[in-house]
Structures are given as structure tokens and as C-alpha cells.
Request: fold
Amino acid sequence: MTRDWPATMPEATSIWLAGRSIEEVECVIADIAGVARGKAMPAKKFTSMGRTFLPISIFFQTITGGYPEFDMPEYYAEADLTLTPDYSTARAAPWAEDVTIQVIHDLTRRDGEPVGLAPRNVLKRVLALYAAEGWRPVVAPELEFYLTERNVDPDYPVSPPVGRTGRKRVGRQAYSIAAVDEYGPIIDDIYDFAEAQGLEIDTVLQEGGAGQLEINLNHGDPLDLADQVFMFKRTIREAALKHDCYATFMAKPMENEPGSAMHLHQSVVEATTGRNVFSEADGSPSKLFFGFLAGQQTHLTSVVALLAPYVNSYRRLVPQGAAPINLEWGNDNRSVGLRAPIASPEARRVENRVGGMDCNPYLAIAGCLACGYLGMKNGLQPRPAYDGNAYTLPHALPRSLIDALELLETHSALQDALGREFCALYASVKRHEYEEFFQVISPWEREHLLLNV
Reply:
């Protein structure tokens, strides 16, 4: 490690330290689910040690802690991977008792080859495709989540927490300032934690569900924004726990409330000039804009497994569920899967509304951008813009995780873009989770089948 690495830290981290000595360093990576894994150590050890390692098996672990069968010698040997710190991601962990810095690491094999199974490297692989064309994608995620009461028994449904009024919030209060104020102390801590880490919040608003909030992030580099979402999830959870409640990013945590999405605004600029290639010189939409849109319409169903990675995810993507059920596009139309917001030519973009907040941000962003890239490269044309209520159109997205995986496994061009080894591993992990889910007998089955069939 570089002994003078604190001098290279982001400004926000240096300001937060304010002359204090770093006591602990967390070396973190995102696994397939987007869960933070790694090692924590005293700062002196981090500075003095050489290389550090993690076993490749961390990428084979399911969300329940299981391991599927997978034909790879490194898997059975649990071969070590080398961690390399990305010091630009060094951020405070302001909730920790000790003065702690968290640093996202990249992973390589012992010969220096990037590990294609690592979600951060999957996104880098897609960004390299854009760079080869002289393009640079720009994204802005919107993060929806629920605050809930503590739920220590998974057999019981979750419910919104009691706010400052002493009452539980009810749903259907979108954009209510009073509803945001209800959880003011939690939001204040989210702001404070975010400022300490240099995570820039654009806006905070009340969404349609009871206790459901949305945080919008400023647009920027896809890798940096994926890093921010990865860290924001932990930040929001820690702020909620400080106030004796939970923050959940499940796609559909409550039966009668809307699901939580990660809407993704996407545009592409020239790498050298920063000009938005989605607009012509006269301000009209460009062929590349329509190609990007068409790429999403044509290919996005095959990456829905990355945008909706769990059985629960598909409970959100249902008719009348306040989430898209198809890939129509429209100008300023929130009922479609692909929305073109009102914007100046310089800010012309495509908002993908399909992804759930339960996604791994690296993989979701990589999948969406890969689809747009294929559309731009192949000069595809989208269907005409849809002006009506797209919720009334036929359901055109995969209805289950298995359906979505089958589409990913048979799409050669997307597998090439994302990495074939990664796609094979991802499908194996998700199929294992799917089978685990079907070993559980639900309350619905006991209620309606036990004595009636």
C-alpha cells in the first residue's frame, strides 16, 4: 500500500478527518448481490502491509449464504484474488465509533488480470466499449426505499415506523413535505453522513408508499455513481438504525404499497468535448439518441435479471403496480418503461424506469448501458413514441426470475459485452436462490390449500 495514501484522499474525507488520525480501514468490494464484503484492519496495518487477498468464492455466495455448483477449478480451490485499493473512493464511515475510512478495492488474479466476475469490473468492461468509440456515458440514479419498524421475525409483515407525530404514515402522499418532515431526524443524519463521505444528494422527496422516500443523485460518471449507490445503501441503513428503525431496499416489501425502483437517467457525451451526442447541432434528437432508445427496447428484456434479481422483484413489475410492464418509450410519460424527460438539448437523456432498488448498482448500470451501446452501434430504430397510458398495454417484461435468466443466457451479444464467465456465474447463483425460495411454504398456501384442496 502507498504510505502517503491519506494525501490522495478526496477533499470531503480530508475535511471530515480534520487532523484526526485514521484508526481503522475497511477494504470493501461489492459481491454479486451488491453486499459489501472485505476486511477491516488497523490503519497502521493497512499502510504497512503488501498485498491483501480475498477468496474467489465470495462471488459464488447466494443472498442466503448458499453456494451453487459451478464448473471452475478456482472455485473449488477457493483461489485467492488480489485486492487493489482505489484511493479515489476513500470515504468516511461516520457512524463508526472509531475514526474509520472505507476504501473500495478492485480485484485481479495473481497475474494482474482483472477478475471478470467482480461487478465493478463488469461495469468497467462496458465502459471500455464506449471509450473505444470516443463516447462517455453519464448517469443519474434515483434511489427509492422504505423506512420500517424493526422487524425481527420474518414471519410477520413489515410496517412503516412511527414518525414525529406519533402516528404511522399512510401511503399515497407522494411529494408531501409534511411526510418528509415526519422522519426529519433520520433524513438529517442521512445528509450529515452523506456530507462526511462527499456523497452529493440532489433532492429528497416522499414517494407514494407509507414511509417510502426517494433520494436523487447528481449526474456523473457511471463508475463513480455506482460506487456512490453502493455506499449510499449502507449510509441510509446506518442512519435508520440510529433511530431504531430499518431502511429496506427490497423491491416490494409491503403488499399494498408500491415497490421501490432505481430509475436510471442515461445520456452519452463525446469523450473529448463533452457534447451530448443525443442532440444534433440544431437541438433536435440525434440518430444516436434513437439508437440508444432502440437498443434498450430491443435488448433490455435480456438484462432484466440484473435489474430485477430476486423472486420478490417481480412482485413490483405488475399491472397497476406503479411500475412499468413494457418497454415503450415516450416524451415526459411516466407510464412507459423508457421515459424521455423534459430537458434542454444539452441534457437530453433516457430514463430507464424498469430497475428495482434491490439491484446491484454496478450490474444494473452495466446492463442498461450495454443495451444502449448495442443499439447505437447497430443503428437500431425505436418504435414510435407512446403518448397514452402504457399501463394498459400488454405485459412485455419477463414475469419471473427464471424467464429473465433464460433470456440472458441466450443473448450472445450481451454476454460478450458483460463477460460470458460472469453471465454463467450470475445465472448459476440466481437459479440456486430461486430453488431455495421454492423450498419455503408460504402463508398463502397454508391459508388457501391446507383444508380446501
